[in-house]
Amino acid sequence: MQQSNVDPVEVGKFEKLAATWWDPLGHSKPLHQLNPLRTAYVERHADGLFGKRVLDVGCGGGLLTEAMARAGAQATGLDMGEEPIEVARLHALESELDIDYQLCTAEAHAAHKGAHYDVVTCMEMLEHVPDPESVVRACAEMVKPGGHLYLSTINKTPLAYLTTIVGAEQIVKVLPKGTHDYSKFLRPSQLIQWCERAGLRVQHADGVLYNPLTETFRLSSRMEINYMIHAVKPHE
Q1: From the annotation, which residues make up the binding site?
Q2: Which residues sit in the known binding site for S-adenosyl-L-methionine?
Q3: Which of 69, 132, 138, 198 is 20 to 30 A from residue 79's alpha carbon, by CA?
Q4: Could you confirm whether domain 8-233 is CATH 3.40.50.150?
Q5: Among 147, 141, 54, which residue's Cα sits nearest to residue 101?
């Protein structure tokens, strides 16, 4: 199993949160609030998920993975956190969903799953690995020609720092302190360049904004904080 692109400190952060992953009022509350938006984003641009083979890289406790499985996809989830994977497996069992969860890196999985998936997602994960471009490249390798890759992360801007680290971690405290490292935030131009370098064509780039009054997320043309990218692999 390839583990070179794994930061044990980052993995440890999410190991500590594993027990409350499915608590909509716990530390994963922002993910629960975000999940309907990102699931709809994936489903819309993929023209539905029913019957499609999907892979969720950095799946954590399985929020997005389960949502895609419920939409009729044949779902696989990858993560390097043992506790989150166990939580994901248990919750899928309780939910009577057939999901293949694996303790594995994207790079190791890509070694034997090239051009295998109709849809690959990698959400809120790139800012937690030493070499995010390596993950993008591995994800691109696993997408079938004509298939889709979805990425989401945090922009490297002062506003993103104030919102996610000062606001969410230090003031409102909806996230534990130290969850994010500003030096690992990624500009959209950088992520788009990596996608193109991996042979993908970017179709959509959308900002994600949070309304604290309604506690909901929505898409926006503003990408200063969170954003999502949708790319496709051309037919050869």
Answers
A1: 38, 58, 79, 123
A2: 38, 58, 79, 123
A3: 198
A4: yes
A5: 54
